[in-house]
Amino acid sequence: MSSEKTIMLKSSDGETFEIEEVVALESQTIKHMIEDDCANTTIPLPNVTGKIMSMVVEYCKKHAQSTNTKGKTVVDDDLKTFDSEFVNVDQDTLFDLILVSISL
């Protein structure tokens, strides 16, 4: 990890994820928790398994890297390809990703 501020997330199965704040800000729910100063400790995510959380973190990292200096996401062919491949998973995993996307 770099010297950036980090946020700790904990999945329903006890797996913890330390991610840079800029990556965590991709989630509106976590963004609001940070803004309300509720993210000083580990944020529990009781409805998200470690498997799905690792996928969400990967997705958020990729999208955070694609954000320009004005805070707008730059959609290029690489990001479109990533998004297309990201949802190319089995139906159960896709269903879990959809549920998490609604809550996060």
Q: Could you walk me through the main structural features you see in this protein, from its secondary elements to its overall organization?
A:
This protein has 104 residues and is an alpha+beta fold. The protein has 5 helices and 3 strands; from the N terminus they run ββααβααα. A 3-stranded mixed sheet has the order 2-1-3. It is globular. It starts with 5 loop residues before the first strand and ends with a helix. The model has no long low-confidence stretch (mean pLDDT 86).
Can I get a quick summary?
The protein is α+β, with helices and mostly antiparallel strands and 104 residues long. The chain is built from 5 helices and 3 strands; from the N terminus they run E-E-H-H-E-H-H-H. The model has no long low-confidence stretch (mean pLDDT 86).
Strand and helix order? EEHHEHHH
Number of helices: 5
**What spatial form do the alpha-carbon principal axes imply?**
globular
As residue ranges, the low-confidence spans are none
Work out the number of β strands: 3
Strand fraction: 5-15%
The averaged pLDDT comes out at 86
Structural class: alpha+beta
Radius of gyration: 14 Å
Largest sheet: 3 strands, mixed
Amino-to-carboxy terminus distance: 23 Å
Strand order in space, largest sheet: 2-1-3
Helix content: 40-55%
